[in-house]
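Thread amino acids onto this structure.
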């Protein structure tokens, strides 16, 4: 539908490309590389992101303290451990090898400013009244999972908060695995977390998961690294009532980020799949996300069930993505940048949404279901292969009405209006749109300078294949846009490449072709729906040329007396620069190629 919106000004200036602190070990501890990082500078913040390319090393267990869990107690060989009333307390830095099964009890780390490494070898810990593994104090705690081992943590449905390390008022701890210091989970083994009370894994500082296979089932949120969450070469499966992965620091704009590289993620969330307070960066791997039951389901206006979500920046450079989301599939309150990857998206709202700028330079994007396909204050497409099915606009500049609430904040559709400094630019790639509303709709300008744009537009006369409040210009590329006649628009006279708008009716599946006088095919497209008019432009269309547009057995031939043939509203300030076609083009409001 033709709606005009003013973008909600929640654009946070920090654009972060972030990594995470990895473990900096001493003798006997797992060691990561924290040097050689990247510095990102913006107008307000300078962020140094440590290099996490080096793997966390397997710890040296010679001389390590052994903890053998049994029932409600444990046998200890070595130093640095106290056992009392079902609580195994680590009191000093060093390496500890944990084995066996604890049916009722917990491991508590209380080693202030010390490096602690727990090597978990097929350990199983159950605590019905609190967190079975609670890192209360340390400098960094590393959970190392040796290859071929499987460790399980399970909590109960209610926490008592009765010991001196817990707080009912702060609800701390509130996760099956809870750490108040930097936490590293590494190794080639597996960790299963069964969180029956609240959250699965919570790190109050930084959280790094490297290589490990981690499975979390949580009543509320799955995995949270408050200051940052980094996932490298890991396999993560989360089933959660709330968010699956999250980073939540909202008091420091240099934190609250998530970085994921080369990992396999399978996330089923009641709310957001991945939610970063600031920046979300994903490179490589496979990501499968289902939120709130998937596309077609409904949520309350104040809920958010987006697939990939960030407060300032979503950056994706590669990977394979299967996103089936009740709310936006990819959403940023700032920018979204896609420079690679393969995406299959079904969503009840926007396929990709940026409050500021959505940039796509490469990748394969198939949006099989959406309310609006691509949406941003600016939508810039310079490459990639993009296919969009939308029940409203295919591509929209200036924001729009999230069916489930704008940005997850519960604003109603049509809450914002007015035109402004907005832009849709296609300079490369192949874009195919099947929209029930406008094919492309800009509250500012439209620029086509290259690439290919094919639109199967609306059948209702209240929408158009091309809808532009500012100027629409074409200087290169191929455009075939088929739609209804009522709101037909052509490119404006500022264009340097010829464009033709004609009345030409056809049925779904009838191919539209544009030929020059020599019979050469300059453009071709098969719309998915019936149409009543067509806009066509290609590099061979020039002033003075004669061209034939055909749909099925119907054709029309035009001679380009001027560069723009056919009235429309693509050049609102122009009142007569375009050529008036003999048959008359619906949408002409009193002046050729302009608004009357």
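Threaded sequence (596 positions):
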């Amino acid at each position: 539908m033709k709606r005009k919106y003013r973008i909600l000004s929640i654009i946070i200036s920090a654009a972060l490309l972030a990594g995470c602190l990895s473990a900096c070990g001493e003798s006997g501890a797992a060691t990561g590389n924290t040097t050689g990082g990247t510095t990102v500078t913006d107008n307000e913040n300078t962020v140094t992101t440590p290099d996490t390319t080096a793997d966390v090393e397997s710890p040296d267990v010679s001389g390590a303290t052994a903890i053998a869990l049994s029932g409600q107690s444990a046998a200890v060989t070595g130093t640095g451990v106290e056992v009392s009333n079902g609580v195994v307390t680590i009191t000093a830095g060093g390496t500890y090898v944990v084995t066996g099964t604890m049916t009722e009890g917990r491991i508590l780390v209380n080693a202030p400013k010390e490096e602690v490494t727990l090597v978990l070898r097929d350990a199983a810990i159950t605590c019905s009244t609190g967190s079975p593994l609670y890192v209360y104090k340390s400098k960094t705690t590393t959970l190392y999972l040796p290859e071929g081992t499987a460790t399980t943590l399970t909590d109960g449905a209610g926490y008592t908060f009765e010991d001196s390390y817990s707080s009912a008022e702060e609800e701390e701890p509130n996760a099956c695995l809870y750490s108040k210091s930097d936490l590293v989970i590494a190794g080639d083994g597996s960790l299963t977390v069964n969180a029956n009370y609240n959250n699965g894994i919570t790190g109050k500082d930084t959280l790094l998961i490297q290589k490990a296979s981690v499975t979390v089932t949580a009543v509320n949120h799955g995995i949270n690294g408050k200051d940052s969450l980094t996932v490298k070469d890991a396999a993560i499966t989360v089933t959660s009532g709330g968010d699956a992965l999250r980073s939540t620091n909202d008091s420091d704009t240099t934190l609250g980020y998530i970085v994921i590289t080369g990992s396999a993620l399978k996330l089923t969330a009641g709310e957001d799949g991945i939610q970063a307070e600031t920046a979300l960066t994903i490179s490589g791997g496979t990501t499968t996300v289902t939120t709130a039951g998937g596309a077609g389901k409904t949520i309350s206006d104040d809920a958010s069930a987006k697939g990939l979500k960030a407060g300032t920046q979503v950056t994706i450079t590669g990977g394979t993505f299967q996103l089936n989301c009740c709310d936006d599939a990819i959403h940023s309150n700032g920018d979204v940048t896609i420079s690679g990857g393969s995406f299959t998206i079904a969503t009840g709202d926007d396929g990709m949404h940026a409050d500021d700028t959505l940039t796509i330079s490469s990748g394969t994007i198939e949006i099989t279901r959406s309310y609006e396909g691509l949406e941003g204050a600016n939508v810039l497409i310079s490459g990639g292969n993009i296919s969009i099915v939308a029940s409203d606009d295919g591509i929209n500049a200036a924001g729009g009405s999230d069916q489930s609430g704008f940005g997850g904040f519960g604003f109603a559709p049509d809450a914002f209006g007015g035109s402004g400094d907005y832009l849709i630019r296609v300079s490369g790639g192949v874009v195919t749109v099947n929209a029930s509303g406008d094919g492309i709709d800009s509250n500012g300008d439209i620029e086509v300078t290259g690439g290919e744009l094919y639109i199967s537009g609306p059948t209702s006369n209240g929408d158009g294949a091309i809808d532009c409040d500012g100027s629409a210009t074409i200087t290169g590329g191929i455009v075939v846009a088929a739609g209804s006649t009522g709101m037909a628009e052509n490119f404006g006279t500022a264009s340097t490449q010829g464009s033709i708008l004609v009345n030409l009716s056809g049925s779904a599946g009838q191919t539209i072709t544009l030929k020059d006088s020599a019979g050469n095919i300059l453009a071709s497209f098969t719309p998915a729906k019936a149409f009543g008019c067509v806009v066509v432009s290609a590099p061979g269309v020039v002033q003075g040329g004669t061209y034939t547009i055909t749909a099925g057995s119907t054709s029309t031939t035009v001679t380009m007396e001027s560069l723009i043939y056919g009235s429309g509203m693509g050049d609102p300030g122009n009142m007569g620069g375009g050529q008036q076609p003999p048959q008359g083009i619906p949408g002409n409001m009193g002046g050729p190629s302009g608004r009357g």
